[in-house]
Specification:
Keywords: DNA-binding, Membrane, Transmembrane, Transmembrane helix. This protein is mainly β and 706 residues long. The chain contains 5 helices and 54 strands. The two termini are 26 Å apart.
Length: 706
């Protein structure tokens, strides 16, 4: 990409041009291009003039902006080297691009290297002693011939020493996952619909069809998807027992909220058995005699195979998912609020697995391989975490990245022989649509750009939104013209809210420590975003401005299903302090009414709304049923929300008396977004959503040694 931009530095290179030139035979999402540009900028820093070396031209593309010198020279072995020197006073001063190298034997090789002025270090093999525990001491040299004997014997001993050293070296090399790579990607399904993998019995993969609902199965070699008839509401596929006989099922039974019941299903015979309630994740023990489960309030408990003898072993709190019991039975790993954690099988030694690992602020799904290595997902890519850093070492392991590129991966599980990974691979692309009351259909809005978290300024002249999936905050005129880029990766704004006076935009982003935090940025694009509570260690989500702009209500819950210790708070923009709203424990997603008299909030189980009368301090209940993405109408009479159940729809409920009405039918629709989906209102209270234009299928990834 850098070479292409330099070669065409006299003009702007459009995104389409770059995608066609760099990935001519592949479908590559624009988010990958955005990320590559970000990484190049990070490496190049800035020119001494202060401007970016690679400049973004809004709605047009990118341009290489600084002077370049081309220096050609011929090496003795007919080597042609072109050196590109970027005039910069920063760290990167020379960028060396070695073109085709023609050796004396006529072979052609290609090498591209960035000279970052970092001295290279030779690889030094340490001296190896073949005696255990021996301490080297000074001694007189002895004749090997006198000690060992004949030349033939000396040769045999020498060969044996070499063989031992070679065996030890190969053991280190071939057992360490830096020498693993994905050699082939083979699709198992091909319908493109969103899926969530549960488990495999070795011959078939069991998964949840997110769009149509229900659990299905497919052969590990691909073929027809077959529905699994379960007879329970909103089933989600879980883990398969080690003997391949029983599938765990979690019944959602409430839409977007935490699951309410855990079931076991016999794959032969079809018998189904209720095990427990209020379970969000569950996994089998390696012997198949027990299960470890996480509850909706952040507890971890263990039970027998039939559901008996359930007992709590730990209470880490937070939103727990992706439980995985190690093959040796000693360790349980799980994701807590988007970060990997680990616990001993008896509930002791609860700790974060990768503290300070800066590759990604989120690590969601993970699963053990048969040999005890661990696959997990970070930033949509699959990583492998070895048992230890190197052969014979007890130091903490370092994750090794296995997948690259624009495809977003999720739910990796290993094949029974450990030679393959089965995972969901997704290309992300959306189309902004708005509900048209005349046709009762959703139609493209703002030319159908792929954006979410769309909000409008109170003066009706501007709109702000976050591009999907690359997560960049933009501001534009109401018709979408003259966009201004407000943020850059790795910042990924969510839950965007415009201040009443139009001067500030509040949003949520995840810090390097994995904590959701609220920041504000000037809406004219000047300055940088800053946190409202920079020293706060609790999660801050779902900001909502008071109508006078003096306060921001927010939730301390990091996610649906998080610890019941979450509550609602109000941040005072003058005093810079936050106070807890009365009786708000276990509530989330606060929304200030347009007249400032009420604050609405969702319950933690997402099955109803609560309404706080700020004058009396009393809460009342609004019976919405399953609720997500609540928004007040501009006149303050109604609260719109998504009812994402077996018969999904956009509903609204009247705040004064709880009367409910259906606004739009979402049956059979495919929608997407950072939080699975998103819904907002335009200035006339017409619902807006992000229609899913991407694909999602299950793939088989073959692993091989380098």
């Amino acid at each position: 990409m850098l070479v292409y931009l330099i070669d065409h530095r006299d003009r702007v290179c459009s995104k389409d041009e770059l995608l066609a030139a760099l990935w001519p035979d592949q479908f590559v999402d624009e988010s990958n291009l955005t990320q590559q540009i970000f990484l190049l900028r990070k490496a190049l820093l800035r020119h001494e003039s202060g401007k970016k070396i690679i400049e973004t031209i809004s709605r047009r593309g990118y341009r290489f902006t600084v002077p370049v010198e081309l220096e050609k020279r011929h090496a003795p072995q007919e080597r042609l080297q072109q050196q590109v020197v970027v005039n910069s006073s920063e760290t990167v001063t020379d960028i060396t691009i070695e073109e085709e190298e023609i050796e004396a034997n006529g072979d052609v090789s290609t090498d591209v290297a960035l000279d970052l002025r970092t001295p290279s270090q030779p690889l030094v093999m340490p001296r190896v002693s073949l005696t255990s525990g021996a301490t080297p001491t000074a001694r007189e040299p002895r004749s090997l011939g006198r000690t060992i004997g004949s030349p033939a014997m000396r040769w045999l001993v020498g060969a044996a020493v070499v063989l031992v050293l070679l065996t030890a070296y190969l053991a280190m090399r071939w057992s360490y996952p830096t020498h693993l790579r994905v050699s082939t990607y083979a699709p198992i399904t091909s319908d493109g619909r969103a899926k969530s993998i549960g488990g495999t019995d070795g011959s078939r993969i069991y998964f949840t069809q997110l769009q149509t609902g229900g659990v299905a199965e497919v052969s590990v070699s691909g073929g027809v998807e077959v529905p699994v008839q379960l007879g329970i509401e909103d089933p989600w596929s879980g883990d398969v027992s080690p003997d391949g006989s029983t599938l765990l099922i979690i019944s959602q039974a409430g839409g977007q909220g935490p699951a309410t019941s855990l079931w076991s299903f016999r794959l032969v015979g079809g018998a189904i058995h209720h095990l427990a309630d209020a379970v969000v994740s569950s996994a089998w023990s390696p012997d198949g005699e027990k299960m470890v489960s996480a509850s909706a309030n952040g507890d971890i408990f263990v039970m027998r195979r039939n559901g008996s003898d359930a007992h709590r072993i730990a209470s880490p709190g937070g939103y727990l998912k992706s439980l995985a019991w190690s093959p040796n039975g000693k360790t349980i790993r799980f994701s807590k609020d988007g970060l990997l954690w680990e616990i001993a099988f008896d509930g002791t030694n609860v700790h974060q697995l990768l503290p300070g690992w800066g590759k990604s602020p989120t690590q969601w799904s993970g699963e053990w391989a048969p040999d005890g290595q661990f696959f997990f997902v970070a930033d949509g890519q699959i990583w492998l975490l070895p048992r230890e850093r190197s052969f014979g070492s007890s130091e903490p392991a370092t994750p090794v990245q296995l997948t690259f590129g624009p495809t977003v991966w999720d739910r990796p599980i290993a094949s029974s022989d450990g030679k393959k990974i089965f995972a969901s691979g997704r290309t992300r692309r959306g189309e902004l649509v708005r509900f048209d009351t005349k046709s009762t259909q959703f139609k493209p809005f703002l030319a159908g750009i792929s954006v979410e978290f769309v909000v409008f300024s109170n003066d009706g002249r501007s709109v702000a939104y976050v591009s999907y999936p690359d997560g960049v905050l933009w501001r534009a005129n109401l018709d979408g013209s003259h966009p201004i880029q407000m943020t850059e990766p790795p910042l990924h704004p969510k839950s965007v809210r415009w201040s009443p006076d139009g001067s500030l935009i509040a949003f949520v982003d995840r810090t390097a420590d994995g904590i959701d935090a609220i920041s504000v940025i000037a809406s004219d694009g000047s300055g940088k975003p800053h946190r409202i509570l920079p020293l706060d260690r609790k999660a801050e989500t779902d900001p909502s401005w008071s109508p006078d702009g003096q306060k921001i209500a927010f939730s301390t819950s990091p996610n649906v299903g998080a610890s019941t210790q979450s509550d609602l708070r109000a941040f005072d923009v003058v005093t810079r302090k936050a106070t807890v709203l009365p009786e708000s424990e276990g509530l989330l997603v606060p929304r200030w009414s347009p007249d400032g008299r009420f604050i609405s909030a969702m319950t933690l189980d997402t099955v109803s709304l609560r309404l706080l009368d700020l004058s009396s301090g009393r809460w009342t209940k609004l019976d919405t049923g399953a609720v997500a993405f609540p928004e007040w109408s501009h006149d303050g009479r109604w609260i719109y929300y998504v009812r994402w159940t077996a018969d999904p729809s956009v509903q609204r409920i009247r705040a004064s008396d709880g009367r409910r009405e259906q606004v739009a039918d979402l049956e059979g629709a495919r929608y997407t977004g950072t939080y699975t989906l998103w819904m907002g209102l335009d200035q006339a209270d017409a619902p807006m959503m992000l229609r899913d234009e991407g694909t999602d299928d299950i793939y088989s990834l073959t692993l091989e040694r380098k």
